[in-house]
């Protein structure tokens, strides 16, 4: 039968759906519960190949655990909280061409369906049903679909309400001014998931140096307040709009764009005059710390949208500023055009304020000259600047002018110096982003200080408890453990509400909605009770109900028996054994997940492990829905089959590594699976039989070799799966064993009953190993072979009776000999009539015995060998051979070395003579190195243990 993945896969999908194969309920049996979760999708667009591996890797692990006998729960739900879906709907209703293009061209939304997407939940439901669910079912994900929900379901909102009332009562929620990401278009706070650009942007707290101009303050932002004594000049953009404004009762001169930033950061701002920046050029402002007059120069590199739009210059310690000043000095015409005296500019000299080892009086000048950077546009300038800033921060000592801070290292006193400047009235503060930030709605995002409710992740005891969660859980890969601890250390208050959007209202103030990252911290617990919770009226789901459910009958005066009944199911499944998630979520969602579990649940219910996932590329480029650079699952499955899609994604990289979807490589995987299918169907009986494994005929050496290799494969695949190394596991089960089969087919007479039995046994075992990866093909073939699907058969166990390292070693020698003869034939171009093989002489094996006895240390081996008079007489020859044999065994385990020591090399080659003669079409003769007849090619002396000498005639 030809391989038709679409036909096979559709039949299995229907069968799984009809039987509820993956619906998991608590069992009275001794089955170990395993609970696996993955971040629920946000259906603001369709599912594409970038998402597919995210859901397929945990499915593989879920399938594996089922075959190991576990009762596995693998659920999914839909995250609709927040504003991205609302924003997408608004863009659709406005007829924005880019949005329409994404819907029509990327996600193939029919024209007559677009109107159904013009409500938030209509939009979400379309992508849930037509993209995510269809794609997940097509891929064969073993999900319990009874447990799905959306985050604006009224029962789920009751669950979130319980969570936040509990957190407030435990003083984990506070209200106050706090910097937030604020969309100026939507006029509300946003979080990382709401952003189109700038997802990695961080808040930066700038120090504003309060320079003076007559009666006005001209604030200039810096991250290096200690450099204030080194300021020689300032810059403005002459063509930008600046304003005179009353800020908290003072007159300030700033860019027009800065006024909105200041308003958002809790300042009262009233603009009284607008003017071009050119009116500031040529004037002098007063340094509040030194009292020096500082000239204002024109510069096109000043961004009026950044901070206050006025920039101070410290050319002694900033390579950027040094080069900008040199360029200003060299452009007298530009200075004159803006009314600035070129001679005055030429007279500006850098003012050093600190000493740092390795640099002279003017570190910035030394830095650019040593790097041969001569222009502000040189791409090397950024690295030069970063290097100097780093050296000055960690080793720069301030000059005597700094009074009590003189001689101190900047790293030790920057914050103290800044605070002293604020207290003295010289400095102010302002927040700004490290890069431009754009909301998904298209609006600019600014830093705003708002009176808001926030989660107090800065509480020391909460941090300590969360670190215990990290300490006790499994982190895959292990090197991510430190990233959780690092995130816990730097996390402070997190604003948890927004002004509007989908989701749960703040229980004590329904003007606000709990934001997406804050309502998705313990939803994993909701999966365990979701189907049965639907039977309970919404109004009954109050605080006492959930307290009884999660904290037991002692938590409330009159516990609801339905809650206590649900508690049994929750305790059966919890904790989450493994959460599979993206690496970039460690810095927010995943660490929040750990914080909330540490606070809300007891230690036995804390997360068991987290597996981190890498990013998907498409033909070497990052996938992007907005740019149409995606592959949709339906398209890929139609073209190649679901098993091919799964196997490529699982085999191309380990879960935590990035992978690259390349059509030619996917096509190659499709061809390999088809070849596997064709070979497998050749072995299928006319009728399935479950007894063939018990009817073992006589086996030959090569059969025992393949069966032993099979046991090694079972062990390697199992160990890899326990480490969630899906690439290693699938490589071993498929490609690596295929190499063994290729050799076996060359060596064995496959018409023998023993060979036929061996191949069927190997196939049956491999189908069980491959069932998590290619479940459609594996189940189909296994059922035709044995009468039951592979997923219903237990995971293979290593059979000690079939494991034989000595047999493997013997066959390795035969395979290596075959390769060596072919190499010689290829190099010499000969067509031999006779192939002579010489096994090493006895004295050489005595040297190997010494290696086995003494271990991989040449000195110890020589001491052992020299105790033998025969070997002592051979001197240098023994020494040379000892070194070679030590290298041979250095990285081998004891069992392998012992098997090597027991090997009769000549007898091994003699048993393979019939095969070797067929292989080379020549007579094959095997000798000991020192045996008669004489060696016609003078080759025998080259023989060493495990590398025979070869002569072709």
Can you count the beta strands? 32
Measured by DSSP, the beta-strand proportion falls in 15-25%
Q: What overall geometry do the principal axes of the alpha carbons give?
A: globular
Radius of gyration computed on alpha carbons: 36 Å
Poorly predicted runs:
none
Helix share bin = 40-55%
Main sheet summary? 5 strands, parallel
Query: Oligomeric status of the shown chains?
Result: single chain
Number of helices: 35
Structural class designation: alpha+beta
Mean pLDDT over the full residue set: 92
- Distance between termini? 47 Å
Query: Reading side by side through the largest sheet, how are the strands ordered?
Result: 2-1-25-26-20
What report would you give on this structure?
This protein has 953 residues and is of the alpha+beta class. Helix 21 (633-640) crosses helix 22 (642-651).
